[in-house]
């Protein structure tokens, strides 16, 4: 039996974290639009979550934030002059584009890429396909820097493949690992790769909210990495209408266990049959369904119970559900979570984590991390300067306390001083994480 671990790569929250209301269909983002954020609290919450997992023995990596405000995007729209002039005119003439150029949305690393571990891929390499994120303007700016970031963390091409994102068209709309679940007997064993899509490429979509993943995008991702045991399942339209803008708002899985809401899939029986067929001879899937009668979809979405991290931790014989504190605060969600742990099922206990700043933009614990199954050699081939331990955690905490604002109303995104502050912060981070010279675009233009 081959051995592998599931590492977590979390997106470090950037200094422009804000509530600009940029994501229609993401109810938290819509509700909190216009509020002042606290970028410093946000990055510290994320770091505390990373430290918790590192202490529990899970390999934990840090993904640097993207460069924001992203002036190359504003230049491409014809804004010219000094950096301050570009920002000023963009905010005056095209505020929606300016806001997109400032978004810290790369923190939600579950949307960075879709991962196929080496045991499942056709060429024996780990495949990390950056998502094109075309459904939202601000997120469509991410794939270029995401590719560079993943190549820096996983530089050795004999182990890792980081292809370009799928073509940036609505037909191939792709939101990465948020719409993909891998099940297996053990991380190092061949798995079942469950791809969940919201619509077909040529379908006339008449939903109130966008369906952000097409079947054709999921199929292309599976085809190019050669993902073993690929299964394609349609997300319920009712789930999207209810605010599940990604499948990971209503479903999470690891090892043999798939935990999901009754209303997550268009056809639950077909999903189960397809997963069972793909798992045949490998493992017996454990389906754990939470009924709408126990937890209405609206509570599932507001509490983000399913956006928990489902973890296999060293020394524990059952899985641990790392849920957002909002789950604990919602009586029905808390009861549902605790019922899971007190049954004889695959989940042994629930733990809660405070990532409120991210949650207010619709990003729970599972959104903040990209899972990458790695063999010991692959783990060693990753950039070790990005691996979180107590020392790196301390350095990053100190950096964040010095470099981040503790209050940022969306209007302050237009402040030219913020551009200088973020560049100084990212310059220092480049050293801390050993990202190399000229890693960020602004470092190459100076
Ligand atoms: O794409 N929010 C993100 C949240 C992503 C959560 N990810 C997962 N479920 N995996 C989104 O909707 C809001 C930004 C703003 O409104 O300023 C935002 O982009």
Question: Could you characterize the architecture of this molecule?
Answer:
This protein is 36% helix and 17% strand. It contains 18 helices and 15 strands. The strands form five sheets. The protein has a three-stranded mixed beta sheet with strand order 2-1-15, with helices on both faces. Strands 3-4-5 form a three-stranded mixed beta sheet. The chain has a three-stranded mixed beta sheet with strand order 6-7-8, with helices on both faces. Helix 2 (39-55) packs antiparallel against helix 16 (390-403). It is globular, with a radius of gyration of 20 Å. Residues 18-23, 26, 29, 103, 105, 108, 110-111, 139, 178, 245-246, 248-249, 361-363, 367 line the site of N~2~-(3-carboxypropanoyl)-L-arginine. N~2~-(3-carboxypropanoyl)-L-arginine (SUG) binds next to loops.
Looking at this protein, list some descriptive labels.
L-arginine/glycine Amidinotransferase, Chain A, 18 helices, 446 residues, binds N~2~-(3-carboxypropanoyl)-L-arginine, three-stranded mixed β-sheet
Which structural class matches the secondary elements?
A: alpha/beta
- The CATH superfamily title: Succinylarginine dihydrolase
Helix residue percentage: 25-40%
Walk across the major sheet and give the strand order: 2-1-15
- What is the CATH topology classification name? L-arginine/glycine Amidinotransferase, Chain A
* Subunit organisation of the chains: single chain
Q: What coarse outline follows from CA principal-axis ratios? A: globular
How is the biggest beta sheet arranged? Answer: 3 strands, mixed
